[in-house]
Amino acid sequence: MNKTNLALTLAVAGVLTSCSVFKPKQEVNPNQSAGVQTEAKNKDAFERATKLTAGWPQSSIVAAKDLITKYGEPTEVTSDRLIWRNFAPFKEIIVHKNLYSSYFPLLHQNAVEHVIDYKASSDRITNVWNYNGSVVLNRTQGEMSSYGPNEEMNILSMNLTHKIMSGELSEDRAKVIHGQETLDFLNGERSELTQSLMFGSQINTADAGEPVTDKIRWATGSKVENLTKQAQEEDRGRNKKKYRK
Questions:
Q1: Neighbours of 126 (CB within 10 A)
Q2: Which of 83, 106, 114, 175 could form a disulfide with 76 if both were Cys (CB 3.0 to 4.6 A apart)?
């Protein structure tokens, strides 16, 4: 190889080296990377929700997709419900196949139910009923359930219900705030009332009531005694199981 060819070869090699080895690496945009991951996660959640809720109403499918994105796979799947259990502060989160329409504050389908432990005083139950028929207070089980289109609206309902139960708000004022918060939410604004429960978790909320058999003359005999005995045994069995957990 003559000197001219050698020089040309070295020059070409130098150019190739400079283009490959010493070429600065393109920086990865962390926001772009996060966006791609979020998009992929949403896609996977939608596909999973669509599979689990095949044949269900669209409101249920959308609700399932949002909850799978946030909480992962449901704890239990039935023919008409997806259930997530013990995702604090919620005792249960349920997506329903069978829907009921609600016109308050705007027409929507109650596809999602959220359940928490809650001890409600009886003197303001009617106020809650008048405020929002999609909120259920179960005295015996010691629970509050809220039905709505999504988690944010259920959180809003629970927060306003607690404010009514504590005497902070009237039912009429709660309705107005609920309507304002709903419109803000639909316009992309997120307030604390829709993002997290603004009251602490409660324990020992169940209220079994009081027996009245000793006050009723006819409430005697083997049938009553057997029913009472069976209930007492089952109650003891539940308590033993609860404390073993």
A1: 10
A2: 83
3-state SS class at 110 = coil
Of the CA atoms within 13 Å of residue 88, those in its CB half-sphere come to 4
Instruction: Kindly give the residue spans of alpha helices, DSSP state H, lying in the chain.
Output: 3-20, 30-52, 58-71, 125-131, 151-165, 171-186, 192-195, 222-244
Long-range contacts for 83-90 (Cβ within 8 Å, ≥24 apart)?
Answer: 88/201, 89/116, 89/197, 89/201, 90/114, 90/115, 90/116
Neighbours of 73 (CB within 10 A): 10
Taking the whole predicted model, whether its pTM rises above 0.85 is answered as: no
Give the helix/strand (H/E) hosting 112. Answer: strand 112-117
pLDDT tens figures, 81-94: 999 999 999 999 99
DSSP secondary structure letters along 15-76:
HHHHHHTTSPPPPP-HHHHHHHHHHHHHHHHHHHHHHHTTTS-HHHHHHHHHHHHHH-S-SE
Query: Which residue's structure tokens are 């918060």?
Result: 181
Residue 199 is given by DSSP the state S
User: Which residue type is seen at 72?
Assistant: G
